[in-house]
Structure formats: structure tokens, C-alpha cells
């Protein structure tokens, strides 16, 4: 008996079917990977929340301190708080203050954050998360609505600095993202936000802006 092989048409049909199945499954796999990264990011934020509460408990009810600087990396006077290479820098920072309660560098990094652009220097222990200026040195009893107070959020790019952004209501809050190389959107045009009561939400940038304007502007840490 003569063995019959695939014809060219049959081979093309098989390839077409495999291509169609692949195009259907790849988005599912990508979505699953993104969901896994989001879960890790949520876990990181919750661990940072627990560390923040322990820090306050050991500091007479006052949240993390952070060195104050008058200018941000963009060169604009934004009232931001910035500490480069926070793990080695002797200056106070929220990240350094919480580290004794965590002892894991990986908790400071969202798996969806991108590495810096070419030539960027991360330095030791980069971080993906930014703390709000209104959280810095605020006392527990001076927070009216912890469930509405944004405390930490994840950033699109890994950063070599422990950053506390300008306080709520600051008109330059959106520039915090764009001056560092693009908008936030670490999770498919959305990003994770941790509130002071410990719950997290996945917000669009527009919703984030709305949430950030619920608190008054602080001019310096300790004004609370």
C-alpha cells in the first residue's frame, strides 16, 4: 500500500486553524499574567499598609516621616518629597521608615512597573510606590475618613527614589507622572491605590484625580 501524506491544502488548513486558536488564546494568557501581577501588587500594598500601621503604633500614633525638598526632579517647584537611593541614603524617607517592619525589597516593587528608559540608573532597592504628602507625619487621630484617604499608589516606572508626592489638591499632581517618563497606567491604563484603612482599589487616572482632591493641601509635613 502506498502511504498518503498531507496535501498542501490540508497543511495550510491546519496552520490556519492553529493560528486562529493562538489568536484566541494569547489574549487570555496575557490577561491571566496581568491579573497575577495585579494580585502581587495588591499584596505588596497591603503589606506596606500593615507596616505603616505598626510604624504609627511605635511612634505615638504618627505616620512616617520623610525628608522635605522644595523641588522635584522635573525642576518645577512642586513641594514634593524625594529621597534617592533610600536604602543607603541617611535621609529619612517613608520607605526606609517602614523597612524594619518588612525586610523584603521585593515588597516595594510592582511586577507591572517598567524599568527606566535607556541610561536610567535605578540604584539600590528601587521602588514602584509613591506615598501621598498628606500621609507624611500625620497623626492617626487627625484623619477624619481613613477609607477615603489615598495613602500609596503604584507607578508605571521603577524609581531609584522613595517619593512622597505633593499633598492632596496640588495642581501639579498629574505632572508627577509625566515628568518621569509617561503617565502612571501600570495595569492596563489603571493603577492600584491603597487607602489609609487598608483597602485597595484599581482606578483610572481621572478617578484617581478625583480621589486625590478629597483632602486639603499641606504646605509642609507636620502641618496636621
Q: Low-confidence stretches at least 5 residues in length (pLDDT < 50)?
A: 70-79, 168-182
Percent helix range: 25-40%
Give, in order, the helices and strands: HEHEEEHEEH
Tell how many strands the DSSP assignment holds.
6
Oligomer: single chain
How many domains make up the 3D coordinates?
A: 1
Class per helix and strand makeup: alpha+beta
Outline the biggest β-sheet: 6 strands, mixed
Q: In whole angstroms, how far apart are the ends?
A: 91 Å
Q: How many helices in DSSP terms?
A: 4
Q: What portion of the residues fall into strands of 2 or more residues?
A: 15-25%
Side by side, the strands of the main sheet go 1-4-2-3-5-6
Overall mean confidence score, pLDDT: 75
Please tell me what the overall shape is.
elongated
Rg, Cα atoms, Å: 22 Å
Could you explain the architecture of this structure?
The chain has 224 residues and is of the alpha+beta class. The protein has one domain. It is 30% helix and 15% strand. It is built from 4 helices and 6 strands, in the order αβαβββαββα. The protein has a 6-stranded mixed β-sheet, with helices on both faces.
